[in-house]
Design a protein that fits this description.
Elements (H helix, E strand, L loop, with lengths): L3 H10 L3 H40 L4 H15 L3 H10 L8 H19 L1
């Protein structure tokens, strides 16, 4: 992302209004491009965590998604952060206690629903 000071410098250094509009559009497109890149990276991590839940539970992709969303909402932690924490366990990192406890409860609810 272009730092705000640089954006301001670029916008004030432009001599004409047309050039200023073009430069503002470039800054906006760069910001949007960075946001899309972050979204793609988050999606990959979420999909990895989804696969992990499918292997743990076992369950469908949709149920794994619902379980991750449920954990995220109950812990009040963004879904991408829950997913990243779960994926990090493959690199010997400990799952934070709030996520760990809620994941256990969500898995129990999932298994209880399957028994009905």
């Amino acid at each position: 992302m272009t730092p705000p000071r640089e954006e301001q410098r670029l916008l004030t250094a432009v001599p004409s209004a047309g050039d200023a509009a073009l430069l503002a559009e470039i800054v906006e497109l760069r910001t949007r491009n960075e946001q899309l890149g972050q979204a793609l990276a988050s999606r990959a991590v979420i999909d990895q965590a989804r696969g992990m839940v499918m292997a743990l539970a076992p369950c469908s992709s949709e149920r794994a998604w619902d379980l991750l969303v449920d954990v995220s909402q109950h812990c009040n932690i963004k879904l991408r952060d829950v997913a990243a924490a779960l994926v990090a366990t493959t690199k010997d990192q400990t799952l934070p206690e709030p996520i760990q406890g809620e994941l256990r409860r969500a898995l129990r609810r999932l298994h209880a629903a399957d028994r009905r």
